[in-house]
Amino acid sequence: MPDGSKRLFAAAGFASEARSKYRFLPSAALPPDLPEGPVPIADMANAFGVTHRTLHFYEEKGLISANRIGLMRVYGQDDVMRMAVITVCRETGMPIAVIQELMDELRKADSQEGAEAMFREALQVRRRELTAEMSTLHRQLQQVGDLLDYDGSSETQPLNDNQDSSSLTPQEKRCLELMAEGYSTQRIARALDLKHDETRDLEAGIILKFRANNRFQAIAKAVLLGIVQA
To answer: Which GO-annotated molecular functions does the record name (predicted)?
Structure first.
């Protein structure tokens, strides 16, 4: 590579490093065979198995940043390391908003041990969410099975009455909106600054008001009534 190009690559790498506010990041496996200097966008996409569009999306969300050498987009080694963490999070199904929260927290890490602890806590929260989702799926499967086995011999119970939003407290309304956005009980608790048990009771009260069997039925009825938007 000509000396001028080497200097440009080095400058791009330093610029990316200067923009990075992360002192420590949790350990995550890096793709093999990536160059040590700035990584062109094509190599970055191939290494992590994503599209250029995905990388642009991550840039828009402030998760990674890119430099330019002429017309070529390149990423520094700090971006590669962040991308490795992001990839692990995405593989667990973490929403982008949660990953953004985690990366913001990691900016505050003052040691490698602290960064690892933050990452483990995020993974533990995700495990609890997946466990809750599995429980919900089992209940839904059971309900589908019951509906398929239903022979129609008994009188069909009507759907609930015209429940309106005036019967909901402001806290219940906000909780219902977060439920409709797909927030788990754990995330709703954080958003409303409540304990997990308090949030669970709040959700149960909402479900009861809509005369529903679960949160999904309550959300569906609320959407049909125009109380929340899907």
So the answer is: DNA binding; DNA-binding transcription factor activity
For residue 74, the surrounding DSSP H or E stretch is strand 72-75
Q: Exposed/middle/buried for 38, CB within 10 Å: 0-12, 13-18, 19+?
A: buried
Domains of the chain by range and CATH? Answer: 37-124 (1.10.1660.10), 168-223 (1.10.10.10)
Q: Are 189 and 198 in contact (CB under 8 A)?
A: yes
CA angle at 69 for the pair 68 and 75, rounded to the nearest 5°: 55
- pLDDT tens digit string along 47-104? 999 999 999 999 999 999 999 888 889 999 899 999 999 999 999 999 999 999 999 9
Give me the count of residues in the chain: 230
Question: 147-173 pLDDT, tens per residue?
Answer: 676 555 444 343 344 445 568 899 999
Which structure tokens are listed for 226?
Answer: 């125009």
CB hemisphere CA count around 202 (13 angstroms): 25
How many C-beta neighbours within 10 Å does residue 229 have?
Answer: 9
- Give, to the nearest 10 degrees, the angle between helix 215-224 and helix 196-209: 50
b vs e for 57-95, b when ≥16 Cβ sit within 10 Å of the residue's Cβ? ebeeeebbbbbeeeeebbbbbbbbbbbbbbbbbbeeebb
